[in-house]
Every structure is written in structure tokens, then in C-alpha cells.
Specification:
With 176 residues, the chain is an alpha+beta fold. The chain has four helices and eight strands, in the order H-H-E-E-H-E-E-E-E-H-E-E. A hairpin with a 2-residue loop joins strand 1 (45-52) and strand 2 (55-61).
């Protein structure tokens, strides 16, 4: 592994996201470092957020593991955030150097009975009604109340205001 490969620029989590995307766009293969921490070798759920100049450029994630390891989950979600987030055109190779990365590793969601059990600064939220699911990560700028957080998550899921939905909360470990 050369010096650039060891330059994690912050954390191993964002390194995996960045290098996976760079490799995909260059048509090369990314190989995970051999010295991955144990947590990255286990299954895990994660969201990868890309920003360009501080503005959202893509965000994709999973609420439960879909890959054998958290490292694979992060790599897959980084590529999806850049190329498959339907809110944005795909990231071009020329944009890669301008992106900043954030990786949120999720805890297992727990069901709550009321908005009083939520705190948008500490908990993310998942709302479910039938097959419709909406998720909002914690500590998002401009979201200060549980009611705002729930309303946005429901809107994302296509759940109408006042419509019954199951509510789950989770925490994240955020790496930038």
C-alpha cells in the first residue's frame, strides 16, 4: 500500500467512501486496507452523505445491513450516493476532488410510542406505514423539533399528515 492509500484524511470510514467512489469513476478496483478495524469486518448499516461546497450532493444508505461487512456497505452506499441519488445528476469525475464525505453508522432502530421519545439532535427517525418508509438522520441543520423531524420523514415516505405510522429511533456514529 502506498502513502496515498494510508492517508485516511480523517477517518477510515470516509477513506473507504472516498476511495471506493474514486476507483469506480476511474474504472479501477478498490481494495480494502488489510488492517481494517473489527467493526468494519462485521455487518452494519450506514449512510454516506456527499457535499460539494457545503451543499448536499448525494445521500444514500441502509437501515439494516445488506452486505457481509460494514466496509462493503459504506463502499456500496458511497457509489450509490454519487451515481444513484435520484435528486441529483450523477457525480462527474471532475467533481470528485470537490466532494466532502460523511459516514453515519446506524444503531439498531428501536420502536417508540410517541414523539416525546425523540430528540432530533440525538436520534434519527424512521417512519413506516405499510411498505412506505421514510428516514431522517439526526443532527440535521434546520430541524429543531421532533414534530419537524417526523413531518419531513413522513413526507419522504409519502405518508400523509395525520396518517398512522410506526415510529422508530436510532443513533449514529458520524465520521467526517
Amino acid at each position: 500500500m502506498d502513502k496515498k492509500d494510508r492517508d485516511y484524511r480523517g477517518s477510515i470510514y470516509t477513506y473507504i467512501a472516498r476511495r471506493s467512489l474514486e476507483s469506480r469513476l476511474k474504472g479501477t478496483t478498490f481494495t480494502f486496507p488489510r488492517d481494517l478495524p473489527a467493526v468494519l469486518r462485521q455487518p452494519g448499516a450506514a449512510f454516506v452523505t456527499l457535499k460539494k461546497g457545503g451543499v448536499l450532493r448525494g445521500c444514500i444508505g441502509t437501515i439494516s445491513p445488506t452486505k457481509e461487512t460494514l466496509a462493503e456497505e459504506i463502499a456500496t452506499n458511497a457509489i450509490s450516493a454519487a451515481l444513484n441519488d435520484s435528486r441529483f445528476p450523477p457525480v462527474s469525475p471532475g467533481e470528485v476532488e470537490m466532494l466532502s464525505y460523511s459516514v453515519d453508522v446506524l444503531t439498531t432502530p428501536e420502536k417508540v410510542e410517541s414523539p416525546a421519545e425523540l430528540d432530533p439532535r440525538h436520534y434519527g427517525v424512521i417512519v413506516c406505514s405499510g411498505r412506505r418508509i421514510g428516514l431522517l438522520l439526526p443532527a440535521l441543520e434546520g430541524i429543531d423539533t421532533a414534530e419537524e423531524q417526523l413531518a419531513i420523514a413522513k413526507e419522504k415516505a409519502g405518508i400523509r399528515p395525520g396518517e398512522k405510522a410506526d415510529i422508530f429511533r436510532f443513533t449514529v456514529q458520524r465520521y467526517s
